[in-house]
Description:
Its cofactor is FMN. The structure is a single chain. The protein is of the alpha/beta class. The chain has one domain (6-55, 74-193, 220-302): Aldolase class I (TIM Barrel). It is built from 9 helices and 15 strands. It has helices at 28-35, 79-89, 104-116, 142-152, 170-180, 224-237, 253-261, 271-276, 280-295; strands at residues 6-8, 11-13, 17-19, 61-64, 67-70, 96-99, 122-126, 160-164, 187-190, 194-198, 200-201, 206-207, 215-219, 243-247, 266-269. A 7-stranded parallel β-sheet has the order 3-15-14-9-8-7-6. Strands 4-5-13-10 form a 4-stranded antiparallel β-sheet. β6, α3 (104-116) and β7 (122-126) form a beta-alpha-beta unit. α4 (142-152) packs parallel to α5 (170-180). The protein is globular, with a radius of gyration of 18 Å. The structure holds ligand RRO. Ligand RRO is lined by residues 22, 47, 70-74, 100, 126, 128-131, 192-193, 217.
Amino acid sequence: MTTLTANIAGFEFDDILLNAAGVYCMTTEELDQVLTAPGAGSLVTKSATPSFRAGNPAPRFTKMPLGSINSMGLPNNGLDYYLDYVITKQAVKPLFLSIAGLTKTDNLAMLHQIQASNFNGLVELNLSCPNVPGKPQTAYDFDATRAILTEVFQFYTKPLGVKLPPYFDIVHFDMVAAVLNDFPLAFVNTINSIGNALAIDPETDSVMIAPKGGFGGIGGEIVKPTALANVRALRLRLNPAIKIIGTGGVQTGRDVYEHILCGADLVSVGTNLAFEGPAIFDRLKTELLAEMAKKGYRSLADFRGNLQTL
Ligand code: RRO
């Protein structure tokens, strides 16, 4: 029997798929659908700020050729809402709580609240939201990334990971890994959407989303090579104790397989979950098992990280 399991920070995942933060995870109704979806091994909540945010004006998420573009602007129901949810459901399976403060002070305050709470699952600190006007992506600033992690690990003792933006330069892979390796991170999640892209509607010659003059983060099929490069580059550089959640461009079981080949432990689905709904997890699992059978593999460990080079 082929099993698809993973382990992060001592948590056993019975399946390796989950939603990407931001997709199907804003409300408890959506979260419940992912929680109970066949093929989904976990879920992550919409990145939370200390209190409710309406986010950017619509249209703020749309299909585009080969993927999606969004500038949601961090709409969310506030930390208490998501913290209550994961505390209530944490006995069902290991869960991820995502937070994305607009300032370091907000992030530290939220982590203090989580540290003091009954939540014992995994926290994903989102250092890569591309869509809040006037707020750069923290993880593109290596000194700021080191500074926040230094402060966090002075008090935070529960399992923590970071959501990273895509990097596009080998030197930047080296630089971010050098920072991350200095901390007891449980995992990194790579990649967030490729930020500040522009898609144009050929009928109207107009941008496709309203916020920020049409600039937004892209996801889906178009980002898969960038996602795979980031998973691979980080797996080659990070301490083995830091696990990797691969995110970006997952449409088929073959795409999941390729993320694992590059070193992913879990694989999350964003754009195509938005298009297809939570039934996608079971389809991806079935297709992944078929791909593994074709290659003669019985477990993920048989091929995780085994990308061949020429
Ligand atoms: O809410 C968003 O606009 C958003 C966030 Br926080 C993020 O991390 N990534 C993204 O593509 N959109």
